Amino acid sequence: MRTVKILCVAFSLAITGRAAAQETTIAIHWDKTLRVSNTTPTLQVVYNPMLRENSPIFKGTFGALKDLGASYVRYVPWFPYPRAAVAELKAPTSSQTFWDFSYADPAMAAVMQAQEGRSVVINFSTTPAWMWKTEKPVAVDSDPDLVNWNYNQGRELVDTTGRQVADYYARLIGWYTQGGFTDELGKLHSSGHHYTIDYWEVLNEPDLEHNITPQAYTRLYDAIVTAMHKVSPSTKFTGISVAYEHNPEWFEYFLNPANHRPGIPLDAISYHFYGRPTIINLPISNYQYSFFDQANAFLDRVRYIEAIRKRLSPATMTQINEIGNILLDQDYKGVIPPTYWNLAGAMYAYLYLELTKIGVDVVGESQLVGYPTQFPDVSMMNWKSAKPNARYWVLKLLHDNLGPGDELKGGSGGSESIVAQAFATKKGRRLLLINKYDRDEAIKLPDGAQWISYVDESTGDGPAATRPVAGGRITLKPYTVAIVEFN
Q: Can you give the pTM of this predicted structure?
């Protein structure tokens, strides 16, 4: 997640209600395999007060997470809520330590319970502010639910060796995996937690949070991983986690084993993408062009990064674990048109497909819960009704039908608006269809199409609808994501 400020000039440019183009004919070559997928669709969960047990959407949110059944779910207790994100808000003295998990534990427990043993990527990304050199002590509000955008301060650690931060994270993972830890004064703190943490992601968006260099991050990563691995030997680690993938130096430096201590694992890297309007306050239909143009530019950068990874550290997996759209809080003053969720869902489905073709391992949608004052435009839950919105249902449609081991099949067809890809899966033959634009699209399918399941403007906050395919022809509404089943 990130804080974004963009200044734009607003003007009106409406392209809505476009008529359907000529019928698109899809052909599939089931005997031709283009590649085998190794890609998992999933999501991230970012801590905010809506994840607390007293939240009106708590039950619906974690019910949706459990029902999704995804692997590699990323959980990030984030710095705007330091009482839940930081377990030691005050520096220890010669006689006292200040460890406190009372706000961190409940949401962590809810995530782990909802996952029921499926893999997680945990990222307590926020280091205690007192470990950084700041002009004055960083204040923490007594109300845990108040947003504190100023908590992350400082660009240089007090302990430049990284040992202090590393010891903090070693105790943190001990709390959650080993039942507790011994603090700085030799006192035992017992938690009773013995979670399996498959991956621990080291910091979040370090290019923004503390603005550290690739070299400084790599040194800190090595120190943290060394300390944590001693406590939890089975945990793997995800590195980099940058907000902006434009700087290849991050990947060239971090992925070079020569720049790390001997024996440091390079299990995975991660980075993020958000589509944004180029001009604010326009009809939603106008955003489709900037969103998909930016997605295509991002895909070119992914291909470049993958070339670096394969050259320097080919065994390292890639987790692109924040994908979404940011309208900016001023857009619609928090009232977001329902069709926006369909457009954002279509963009995620498009990136999932294209990243599958590239060979990215994990494609994570951002984020389970956002709400006014905290990135409402990336939410997958309706914070008023406690129901998942179309972005969630698109992810569930993909998750329930597609995944690692699927064979991507050859074919032809599609159009400027329609993206089509056939898969041979363990469940049978499937065709993924995505309508990127704000117009109805008529499609002629190959023989054998039986059922279509789809998320569009008519399904609202409900699950994908399913109906039989009649006569081999269908019409997709704007921003539809659909799966067609073949006999």
A: 0.94
